[in-house]
Design a protein that fits this description.
This protein has 20 helices and 27 strands. The chain is α/β, with parallel strands linked by helices. The protein folds into 3 domains: 195 residues, Rossmann fold (3-Layer(aba) Sandwich), CATH 3.40.50.740; 188 residues, Dimethylsulfoxide Reductase, domain 2, CATH 3.40.228.10; 109 residues, Barwin-like endoglucanases, CATH 2.40.40.20. Strands 5-4-17-16-15-6-7-14 form an 8-stranded mixed beta sheet, sandwiched between helices.
Length: 650
């Protein structure tokens, strides 16, 4: 077309996903028209997942909110940015002066995982400190467990996978949630590696694997304990590693000796012969790697489960070697200068666990939470016991949401501030699936009146007399990335393209020195109590991640169907359910409706559905998920949900 212009801009995905994709954005006449994977990135390898391809629709969605809005008499009314920020600053000052700083709350999660989003916390710390949310909805238990074992949680890079001869995908579904791992799995398989899936749900990842074990949900610790016991009995132990690079093996062995293999197998719901074959294969095949997922530890004793999985890797010497390890994830923000959050300026501190957000806010009395500011998250959908979160937000007098869409959380807000998409802002981002850092590039102008989080909090700081928030995005990025400069990485290099962190090894602990007090790997001596097979009457509900969206980042125009609940046909028959029948899930004093999908691959007593759908569109599965907190790591126990099922509608 005459006069038209087209350019391709390098940028990076900012979502809560281990892939951390490097993307090439095509811009035509100032409009984002296409995205593709960067072929020069060693993990992205030129392709994108379905969720990334939907980014363009998200930027230009007719449901995207592009102007500040204030709720008046129950209805949204547009207002200017000056009026919106004046109003918000006045409310902050009023609650601070009348009730104290802790009457203010800031809730932030990982809707966007960039470096500059760390400065949201800086604003509230400079204010003097407010009530915040602690822990995670995702990986805290696994992080806690691996930190106790190894000294800190880290992982092998995907490029190391083809070095493995045996790969256990334990509670991990890369086909849906980590798709850029799949080419490396296929490469390993082509080189002769055996792939094994351990998951109570038969996912599409099972089609990649040679074997699939389906333990009772939550019994992974017992399976790992049984494998450890067999490895010891069969003499499949790397005693050089155990004696010279670990501690606590005697306590570990003593604990396992107190448990019978028959009992452990019963708790797993797997034949002992199958467990024995798996353990011996793992012990005899070198190197062997375990790629463990997030669902593995979304339980009260999630950290303990992870520690028992770590133990079998250490027992066999599959630690610190190419093609080995227990890979969960990495800390994607460890590269930046965390001191810029200025935690020392927060003279007031109160934390409420994210896993018990609603209960925590309602229980806060000295002072009560009066105002809540929410960024990078949709807690009314994503939090466990989400109706309790709704109750808590309704109790608060003033709720502010920074977002792009009128989510379930927006329905509880009094002020809505529209934020930029990742294609309209300048930033940096790391990954928790590999060691590459990438630029977030403003490839198009902000749509409507959308603003970055940084600009919003700078406007508030100016109104409240806080001086230490000034600076351009680039100036702040220079400061955030300063720890990388002694390593030879400049901001200009980061903004030019993907850069690998030069000191992070592809194979962690290759020197077999661990950042624990003793410098050794630490064996656990604990096996989780309350056997998974002993549960109250009801069905275990596993609300897993789909491949269509990251958590609740689903476009409103793509919602509206009832929740699809997969049921074993034998269970369905006992409930009087047939394919497509309406059903009701009941728990927490709440009922949600769904549609029956028969799935003979699902274990008896187990239900499976996708998480992330919004309450306002008839989904919101977290309404029936209890607010259970892990014993270690302040993690949400999403997979502890037990529900009642009945035929019919709500």
């Amino acid at each position: 077309m005459s006069g038209s212009s087209e350019r391709v801009v390098l940028t990076t995905c900012t979502r809560d996903c281990p892939d951390g994709c490097s993307m090439l954005a095509t811009v035509r006449d100032g409009r984002l028209v296409g995205l593709r994977g960067n072929p020069d990135h060693p993990v992205t390898r030129g392709f994108l997942c379905r969720r990334s391809r939907d980014y363009v629709r998200r930027v230009y969605s007719p449901n995207r909110v592009l102007h500040p809005m204030r709720r008046v008499d129950g209805n949204w009314q547009q207002l200017s940015w000056d009026d919106a920020l004046d109003y918000m600053a006045e409310r902050i000052a009023d609650y601070r002066d009348r009730y104290g700083l802790l009457s203010l709350m800031h809730y932030q999660d990982n809707g966007s995982m960039t470096a500059l989003k760390m400065l949201n916390a800086r604003f509230f710390n400079l204010l003097g400190g407010v009530t915040t949310a602690s822990g995670t909805l995702c990986g805290g238990a696994g992080i806690a467990g691996q930190t106790m074992d190894f000294g800190y949680r880290t992982a092998h890079e995907p490029m190391d996978l083809p070095n493995s001869r045996l790969i256990l995908l334990w509670g991990r579904n890369p086909v849906a949630t980590n798709v850029h791992l799949v080419p490396f799995l296929k490469e390993a398989r082509a080189k002769g590696a055996t792939l094994v899936l351990i998951d109570p749900v038969r996912t599409r990842t099972a089609d990649l694997c040679h074997m699939h074990y389906q333990p009772i949900p939550g019994s992974d610790g017992y399976l790992a304990a049984a494998m450890g016991k067999i490895l010891l009995d069969e003499g499949l132990v790397d005693w050089d590693f155990v004696e010279h690079h670990s501690e606590g093996v005697d306590g570990y062995r003593s604990t396992l000796e107190s448990l019978s293999l028959e009992w452990l197998a019963t708790q797993c719901g797997l034949p002992l012969a199958d467990i024995r074959k798996l353990a011996i294969r793992y012990g005899q095949t070198k190197p062997a790697s375990i790629w463990a997922g997030w669902g593995l530890q979304r339980r009260e004793f999630g950290a303990e489960i992870y520690r028992l999985v770590d133990a079998i890797a250490a027992l066999t010497g599959n630690v610190g070697v190419p093609g080995g390890g227990v890979s969960h994830g990495m800390e994607e923000r460890e590269y930046w200068d965390w001191g810029l959050k200025t935690p020392n300026t927060a003279i007031e501190r109160r934390e409420i666990p994210k896993a018990r957000l609603g209960e925590g806010i309602l229980a806060a009395n000295d002072p009560p939470v009066k105002m809540i500011t929410i960024s990078c998250s949709n807690p009314a959908t994503q939090s466990p016991h989400s109706l309790k979160v709704r109750e808590a937000f309704q109790k608060a007098e003033f709720v502010v949401l920074l977002d792009s869409f009128l989510t379930d959380t927006a329905d509880l807000a009094h002020l809505f501030l529209p934020v930029t998409s990742p294609f309209e802002e300048e930033d940096l981002v790391g990954s928790y699936g590999h060691q590459w850092l990438g630029p977030v590039t403003p490839v198009i102008e902000p749509q409507g009146e959308a603003r970055t989080d940084l600009r919003i909090f700078q406007g508030l700081a100016e109104r409240l007399g806080i001086q230490e928030m000034e600076g351009t995005a680039r100036e702040w990025l220079q400061r955030l990335a300063a720890p990388l400069e002694p390593l030879g990485i400049t901001l200009e290099m980061l903004q030019a393209g993907p850069v690998r962190h030069p000191t992070q090894p592809s194979v962690p602990f290759h020197d077999r020195v661990f950042p624990t007090p003793s410098g050794r790997f630490r064996f656990t001596s604990e096996v989780p109590p309350n056997p998974a097979g002993e549960r109250s009457d009801g069905y275990v509900l596993l609300s897993t991640h789909p491949d269509r969206a990251i958590h609740a980042q689903i476009l409103p125009e793509d919602q509206g169907e009832l929740l699809k609940v997969r049921v074993n046909p034998v269970d369905a028959e006992s409930l009087g359910l047939s394919e497509g029948d309406a059903l009701v899930l009941r728990s927490n004093g709440t009922r949600i409706q769904g549609l029956t999908v028969l799935d003979k691959s699902l274990g008896r007593g187990v239900l499976q559905c996708d998480q992330g759908g919004w309450i306002k569109f008839g989904q919101g599965v977290n309404q029936v998920v209890p607010g259970i907190l892990s014993c270690q790591g302040l993690c949400a126990g999403f997979y502890e949900a037990i529900v009642q099922v009945e035929k019919g509608g709500v």
